[in-house]
Every structure is written in C-alpha cells, then in structure tokens.
Amino acid sequence: MSLNNDWYDNIITENGILNIPYEQISNERKRIGFGRYGIVYKTTCNWIEGDVAVKEVYVRSENYRECIENFINEVKIHNRARNKRIIQLYGISRNREKKLYYIVIEYANDGTLCDYINKKDLKERIRLATQISEGLSYLHNKLNISHRDLHMRNILVKDGNIKISDFGMSKGLDDKNKSFGLLPTFKSWKLSAFALDKVSDIYSLGVILLKLSNCRRTLFPKEQTRKREKTTMTSILKELQFKPLEPVYLSTIKRNHHIDIQF
Ligand SMILES: Nc1ncnc2c1ncn2[C@@H]1O[C@H](COP(=O)(O)OP(=O)(O)OP(=O)(O)O)[C@@H](O)[C@H]1O
What we know:
Helix content is about 40%, strand content about 25%. By secondary structure, it is of the alpha+beta class.
C-alpha cells in the first residue's frame, strides 16, 4: 500500500466516511479497553446522540506505516459493514498535533460477550449464539469479508444484543495474500498456527459456541470436562467441513444446543 500525506483525506473522500472534527469529541473520557494500537474510551460527541466509543491510535515514527495501514484497513472494512449485528462506525477523527487518530463507533453498554455471559441461562446463550452467527454470516456471505480475529472480547453486547466489532485484522475474501495467526486447537489444547480466512472464522465461531454452551470464560477447562468438550468440538468441525456455509451456522447452533441439553 502506498502512503502519501493525504492518506487521511483520501480514505474520507474515497470511502464516504464521516470526518468528525476533533473539537466535537468531548474531553470527558472514561477508559474502557485497551488494544494493540491504543486505548478505547467511552465518551460523547456533539454530532452523535448518546454515548460513543472512540478507539485512539497513537502513530509513533517507529511503527508509522503499520499503524496507518492498519487504521485504513479497519476503517475501510468497518465502513462497508452496516448491519444490526455489527457495531456501527460513525466516523473518524484526528488530533494532528498529538499524532492521534480516532475511530468513532457505537458504544456497547453491556460490554464484551466475555463479561456478559456470566450467569446467563441456556436460552439466552442460544439467542446470543444465533445473533453471532447472523453477524458472521452477513460478513461472509453478503460482504465477502473474513473477520479473522473473532473472539469473546471482540464481540460486544448492546442492550442485550450482539454487535461484532474490531475489524483491524479483517480482509476481503478475494484478497490473495494469505496470513497466519494463532488459534487454540483441540488436539493439544495449545495455540497453533492457522491460515486466517473464512474457515478460521468458522473455527473461531465453534470455539465461541463451545464457550457459550458451557457458560464459562476460558477455553482451557478442568480435566473432567475436556473429553466431553473434545467430542462436542469434533462434531462441530466435522459438520463445518461437509456442508455448505449458510445452513452450517444454524445446524452448528442446533447441534450445540442438542449436545448441551444432553450434558
Ligand atoms: N464500542 C465499544 N463499546 C464498548 N466497549 C468497547 C467498544 N469497543 C471496544 N471496547 C472495549 O475495548 C476493548 C478493546 O477494543 P478492540 O479490541 O476493538 O481494540 P483493538 O485496539 O482493535 O484491540 P485488538 O488488540 O483486539 O486488535 C474491547 O475488548 C472492549 O472491552
């Protein structure tokens, strides 16, 4: 990707993204998260009703290119994803003096799925699983985008409903450049390198469904539950390999539901 000094103005004009003047974002901010490239705050913006979340990206000279390319990729892909299961992108902003860039998004008042599932019953967990599948199905089948970083902390909850977030790693599926990342495997229960694409998203969905079906935060379980979970996961993966994409989302949930009830 070639980067010139106009990159910020270019992504706005080329992608129809709203440029929010920095002064319109309130200075009263509460830190709500932390990611690879900076801090996430809850705040307000004069142009938008209600609370917003802003992802602040600090561009240092040593990682200038990587930061900006990541920012551009995230904003471009996020801007295409307009669906009730996806956190809404409002616009972007910058503070030139401090070399800070901002992605302004819808605030998820119920936090991450990781925190939200605590003490939720089976019916509620199945409702959430269905919504996650709807969101992922939208990205894969309608937009041809793979998320590539799907996990419990990138899935947010607003007013009890799922909002998939964080498109920093996402890619269009026609992008030929393969890249790899670490995912937990069920053979060794350790992280292993996988090609990150649509299939790895489905794998991640399987991991999330597994966590939801057991109502716990960690993938690494106590010894006595491991065997049972391996069987569950094996059947999910088998299912995913042999059926076309769309029905798989639903059958995976039904299957998980079924297995869960049998526990
Ligand atoms: N819209 C939001 N509403 C509420 N909380 C949010 C929102 N966006 C992010 N967060 C919080 O901030 C955390 C980090 O956000 P996010 O993963 O998007 O940042 P990132 O810099 O892209 O991180 P990563 O290292 O995963 O790429 C989330 O796990 C969540 O706790």
